[in-house]
Write a structure and sequence with these properties.
The protein is an alpha+beta fold. The chain has one domain (17-228). It has helices spanning 24-33, 54-64, 68-77, 94-100, 113-119, 188-191, 203-215; strands spanning 17-23, 35-40, 81-88, 106-112, 129-132, 134-136, 154-156, 164-170, 181-185, 194-197, 221-224. Strands 1, 2, 3, 4, 5, 8, 9, 10 and 11 form a nine-stranded mixed sheet that branches. Strands 6-7 form a two-stranded parallel ribbon. Strand 10, helix 7 and strand 11 (221-224) form a beta-alpha-beta unit. Helix 2 crosses helix 3. The N and C termini lie far apart (51 Å). The mean pLDDT is 89.
């Protein structure tokens, strides 16, 4: 279920458009299982995920001098936090197509902040929060640690192009083992407003996706990416 957290920054407009770029196999897994995969925070490619900036780490080290468990808790906490990443943008992103899809056979889910919030109501076992990632200089800027989610809502400035919105869940109070991540229940019809097909895909691929979605009884709109539309002279 979606829960508000006053400490986590989020765009005020629920109609703010967000995107998720993925390959066909992950897309079909989402439709068939009706579950959204959330990755364990320490399994991302960026090794800084869930860690602190240098000024914050120095402060935590001082606090840990007589209490080493304090620092150890923050280190182990990364294994219990799961994340689903979305890209905030009014339009498609050429960079996101390049980074998150391969072989011209990817898709992009278009949704909104409000739709994400409603889609998460289908999950009753785990609480989810939604927040906008802050991009900072990890050598100079301070990350507060009065909220357990804060280390996971900051990234290095070099990732600013991602413009990331995160669905995030803390499972530290649960006696469950998380390997690569966790799947949560979602309302697919709320989650997905529209599907865009990779700009370099062939017509057969679009027809295949339309047929698969139709056979699974979903009615959302499917379009070819606008990035490869005909040139008008």
């Amino acid at each position: 279920m979606y829960v508000e957290n006053q400490n986590i920054k989020l765009p005020n407009d629920p109609n703010t458009i967000v995107w998720k770029y993925l390959d066909l196999s992950k897309f079909l897994d989402l439709l068939l299982s009706k579950k959204l995969f959330m990755s364990r925070s320490d399994k991302f490619e960026d090794q800084y995920e869930g860690t602190f900036s240098e000024p914050t780490f120095e402060e935590i080290k001082k606090l840990s001098e007589n209490n080493p468990e304090f620092l150890n808790y923050y280190k182990s906490h990364r294994e219990k936090v799961v994340v689903s990443s979305w890209h905030i943008n009014e339009y498609e992103s050429f960079a996101m197509w390049q980074i998150f899809t391969q072989n011209s056979e990817g898709l992009a889910i278009q949704s909104t902040i409000g739709r994400l919030q409603k889609a998460l109501e289908a999950e009753v076992q785990y609480k989810q929060f939604i927040g906008e990632v802050n991009y900072i200089d990890y050598k100079k800027e301070y990350i507060p640690f009065d909220d357990m989610f804060f280390p996971f809502m900051f990234k290095r400035k070099s990732f600013q192009y991602e413009r990331e919105i995160r669905i995030i869940s803390d499972l530290s109070e649960r006696e469950i083992k998380i390997n690569d991540g966790l799947k949560i229940n979602v309302d697919i019809d709320q989650l997905i407003e529209k599907i865009y097909i990779h700009p370099k895909s062939e017509n057969w691929y679009k027809k295949l996706v339309i047929e698969l979605v139709s056979k699974l009884d979903y009615g959302f709109t499917i379009e070819k990416s606008d990035l490869e539309s005909d040139i008008l002279i």
